[in-house]
Amino acid sequence: xxxxxxxxxxxxSTVALxxxxxxxxxxTDIEGNVYQTIVIGHQEWMAENLKTTTYNNGTKIPxxxxxxxxxSLSSGAYCxxxxxxxxxxxxxxxxxxxxxxxxxxxxxxxxxxxxxxxxYLEAFADTKYGMGDPVWDKSGFRGQDVGQGLMSRSxxxxxxxxxxxxxxSALPGGERLKGSHxxxxxxxxxxxxENDATSAWFRGLIYGMEDISRDTxxxxxxxxxxxLRNE
Length: 231
Fold this sequence. Notes:
Largest sheet: 4 strands, antiparallel
Radius of gyration: 19 Å
Number of strands: 13
Strand content: 25-35%
Number of helices: 6
Shape: globular
Distance between the termini: 49 Å
Helix content: 10-25%
Number of domains: 1
Mean pLDDT: 92
Strand order of the largest sheet: 7-12-11-10
């Protein structure tokens, strides 16, 4: 009887562990880059930053290395952090919002998430504020520990890493405007939601901070992108 109870305990423990384990998959973009994906609630996200240099219709995305040209753009473009392609495997590319707005940046069947779709992710990751809580509609830093829940377990400055409880594995890929900045300490991601003629909504994670920022920045900024599967 004792042996039977032990076997039953191990079986139930395995079932519980599998129930908690995130459901993962894979996605391939038009260039053949393969990304891990993760199911979070009713959403399926890329668990890595996008690094394609080609729109999903086969058109090449312009790469711009000079800061003066980057600042003058009003059309889609991408760059590597500090123009160094070796960063691409870990951090992906930095895109301006004009590239996001083409609707062709993500692989077929996927899209750049909206501001509201990010709110769903945030509420799912936070241990205090749930779905529909008005805190998610605020600008600036919000939430209790959502940032910790989304940050990867390594790679952040001074080992101020996250718990990555959902497998989202957010990394500090930095940003670009007048040069590239903040790799290792900050991560920024575009939403597809426009704020006004010159700015759009984004999300930001900062090392050592447990919450997450929701704010607007000029469309000329270079931020990372995560894609979300169409429902």
